[in-house]
Structures are given as C-alpha cells and as structure tokens.
Amino acid sequence: MLLEAIYHRPKQNWCYAYDERTIHIRIRTKRDDIDSIQAMTGDKYAWEQTLTYIPMTIMSSDELFDYWECEVIPPHRRLKYGFILQKGKEKLWMTEYTFLNEPPENPDRLFDFPYINQVDVFTTPEWVKDAVFYQIFPERFANGDASLDPKGTLPWGGKPERENFFGGDLQGVIDHIDHLSNLGINAIYFTPLFTATTNHKYDTEDYLQIDPQFGDAELLKKLVSICHERGIRVLLDAVFNHSGRTFAPFVDVQKNGEQSRYKDWFHVNKFPITVENGIPTYETFAFEPLMPKLNTENPEVKAYLLKVAEYWIKDIGIDGWRLDVANEVDHQFWREFRQVVKKTKPDAYILGEIWHESSNWLQGDQFDAVMNYPFTNATLDFFVEGSTDAEGFSHAIGKQLARYPQQANEVTFNLLDSHDTARLITLCKDDQRKMKLATTFMLTFSGTPCIYYGDEVGITGGQDPDCRKCMEWDPKKQDQELFKFYQELIKLRLDHRALRTGKFTFLASEAGQTTLAYAREDDQEKFVILMNNDSKAQSIKIDIEDTQFMDVHSSKTYAFKNGSLNVKLLPYESIILKAIR
C-alpha cells in the first residue's frame, strides 16, 4: 500500500453529517492500490457494545486516486471511527495518529465525530433537487411593453452589441410563460433586474428598484405569483461584490472625495478617485471603472445589502439568490447573509458564482451550491472539443463528485453555456448530435441542470456579446425538433427520481475510447445510459447484474447474456435504458 497517498480528515467533505442521524465518511487512496476498506465505528462511551464494521465502496475515481465512502447511523449521534485497509494479505489499521499492524487496544486515538448537532447539519432546499432551471437574460428575452423601451432601442432581433438595447422586459416573460411551461421548466434564473446603465445590469445603481426598462416591483411580484401558480421558482441575481458607478453612495464619493460620508463604503486607495494607466485608484471588479468594489466589512454597507437580500424574498416572494463574483466577497458577510435569507425563507436557494473548487463556501454556513463550471469544462472537453477521452472525462467528473458533501452535489448548478460563454450549439460547430449528447448527460446527471434561453430552439452565438442574441419567437424560425428533444428529456428527468437524486456510477469509460456508459439508480428504479461520442458507429459492452432493459424512447428491449450487454451505437447516439423489474 502506498501510505503517502492515503488521506482523511474528520471534517469538510471527508466526514460530515448528511442529516440529523446520518454521517458520511470518505477516505482517499492511490488508484487501484487497495482491495478493500472497512470503517471501524462505535460510540466512544460504549465502544465494545457498539463496535461495528462497515464496508466502504469506491464512490468515484480520478487519474490518481480512488475515493471510498460509507454511511453510518450512530446509535447516539456520536462516532469514533478508524479504517481497516487490506491489499492481498497485507492488512493495516488506520487511526487518527498512525497506521498499525494490529487492531488498536482502545478507541482513544481513533478519529472522532463528537456529536451531530442539528444546527450544524448542512441542509439544502429539497425543491432544488427536482428543479430544471432556465436562465433568462431579461433585455433579450421578449419585449412585452414598448412604452418601457429605453431611448435608442433597436428593432427586435438585431445584432447584439455590448451597449445596444432591444427592449426585453418582465411583461415579455409573462407573455411567454407558456413556452417555459410547455418546455417543462420549473425554475427561472434571471440575470440582474435592478436599475443600472448597461444592458446586462451588472453595474447596479439602485438595489431596491427594478430597472424601469423592465418594469417595476409590482410587475415582478405579479410575475413571481404567476410562476408560483405554475410550480416555477424564481431566482434573482445579486451583485454584492461591486456596485455601478451611478450607485448614489459612489456618486457622492466622486463628488466629495475624501470628505464623502460614503468613502468607507468602497476601497479607495488614493484621492481624488481617477484612473491611472488603465487602473482605477479604487478597487473594482476586474479593473472596470464602472464597477467599484463594495466594502462588505463596513457595517452600513452590510446592513444595506442584507436589507436588500431580505426585501426581495419577503416582499416580492422570490425563491433565492444567485450571487455574482461570490468568491471575492468576505466569508463573514456570506455567513450573515445566509442567516438573514434562511430566516426569511428557510428553503431559499443560495447559489454562488465561483468558477473553481469551492469547498470553503460549501460547509453549511454560506452557500447551498455553486455554479458548477468544473462540470461544464469536463463536459465540453469530452463531448464538444474531443480533447479528452472517456477515461479522462470520468476522472474529471469523479474528482468533482468527491470534492463536496453529498447534499451540495445534489443541488449543484450544472450548466453548459450562459451569458458569459459562447452558446452550446456554436461550440459544437452547429452539430446538434454533439449538442444533444452533452445535454443528455447534463439532464441525466446528479445536480440541478440549467438551460440557457434559446438553446432549446437553436439560437446560435459566439462569445459575449454574440451569446446574448434576442430570443426567437417566430415559430417558423424556431427549431421545433430540437425543442421537442429538450421537452422529452426534461419530462423524463422530472418523471423519474432516480435520474435526479439516484446514485451515479460509471460503467464503461476506457482510456482511448469515445464510448461511455453510466448508471443512475435508487431504491425504485435503475437507468443505464450508453453514449457514442464519435463520428463512426461503435459497439459498447457493459457488465451488469440486471437481465433486461427497455429503451425509454423506442420501447425496444435488451436482454443481458451471461451478465453482460453489447450494444451498437450510431455516430453521436445515446440510448437511455430502464431496468425491467
């Protein structure tokens, strides 16, 4: 055994309370190095009477490591535990202090989970596990009230530029709510709606007002009510890392400089504030002078933003927040933010925009989830770019699953494109077969999927601003076959819990191969998904215990012979099989 590769800590994603009774334990070992692991568990005050050995299984793997996991329900919410590792005839006992060749004489030096305190359990909103999100860029979705159009609004459908407007508004969303219901969407994520000078609205001027271009608070309240009647939740975008240059306190700083009562609302390095050699003399988002960074450690700033967080949930009825540039805001602010939001609406969804590993924000005291860009990158690398093989893809996904507690993985926000990226179909060079493969994986994978507006009808677009085209509402110009594909796949996900919260397991993901197979399974159902990410037809063979499956689309049945199944797949084809039990 390579002992240097073995890792465990009694905290974070390695040992945590999944609920008020259950503890999940994980340990990392070198890939293919250990034959079996058992968790040796018991109560520290009654060790001999409660000693139990629990087999661990490999939950996921990457190119270097296997990640083992087991579930424990301690009799008294306390847990002492260690590990028994076996490779061939070699057997070791792992304690918190060292490795032993014999069982430890007592539990004193084992790992300790002191007690499952209910207040410490990381809980996430149940509804998010069943959600299929739809991202709306409000300025480009639909123009429902031309009287609100800003000066210089262009005819709908023109070329998007960084500074032009087409008049999208909240009434337009209301007018087309049937489109979302027909698609099967049950959650909407809006990019910012608050008063701002730009078309994207990430330069907030007033956090307590809807931009007049979109409507007002009463219209948003009406929209939220209509959505709730249809079982659709609503998530708003909050830009608390920075404001806009027209934000009243920053206007005061620009006017009064060091004498401004708001000077400590921001991070000013030198007065008077200006831009020197392309860099502002005050902290900003990405050196952008229009977006001064807020000082969220300032008590007045904190009180103002927390009031904002509460108001839109309490008075308007929204269901949660997506938090822009979340990793540049201090952790203490987010802890207090969570307390305010969860007190106002306990099942509100708190989603952070973080593009990288995010464990520090997913310990139960800050966010429920983050935007899962590591998932995005892995999926695009395999299905779209072809820069990795099936094994590399499974490694990337396996590594990501091992990073976070299960309750965070269950509600992590999975996306394939957005207002910040080129559109999926354009990345696929207009090859819908690749697009459908990637989308099928997202909609049959763990976590919460999100569809960017217009993908379902074939809207194309390169990098910003091209990815922010006007939604196409002419049925003759919409790809109706693509819409049907999304519609059927969303319905399949919503009809079967196993595809939402069931266990995920790779069944075939070999080095050098472009074929892939994986299973989704719970105590009621089992699905096996087969994929051929290649321009040539290929066969895929999997070993599995079940004897018969049915194709969910064609109803064709597949019988396993001698515990294995061999299926021929057309170029870029996927087949979703459901076990017949």
From TrEMBL:
GO biological process, one term: carbohydrate metabolic process
Membrane spanning residue stretches: none
Alphabetical keyword list: Glycosidase, Hydrolase
Origin superkingdom: Bacteria
GO MF annotation, one: hydrolase activity, hydrolyzing O-glycosyl compounds
Record domain Glycosyl hydrolase family 13 catalytic: where: 135-493
One Pfam family hit: Alpha-amylase
InterPro entries registered for this protein in UniProt: GH, GH13_cat_dom, Glyco_hydro_13_lg-like_dom, Glyco_hydro_b, Ig-like_fold, Ig_E-set, Malt_amylase-like_C, O16G_dom_2
Protein family per UniProt: Belongs to the glycosyl hydrolase 13 family.
Protein name per Swiss-Prot or TrEMBL: Alpha-glycosidase
Phylogenetic classification of the source organism: Bacteria, Bacillati, Bacillota, Bacilli, Bacillales
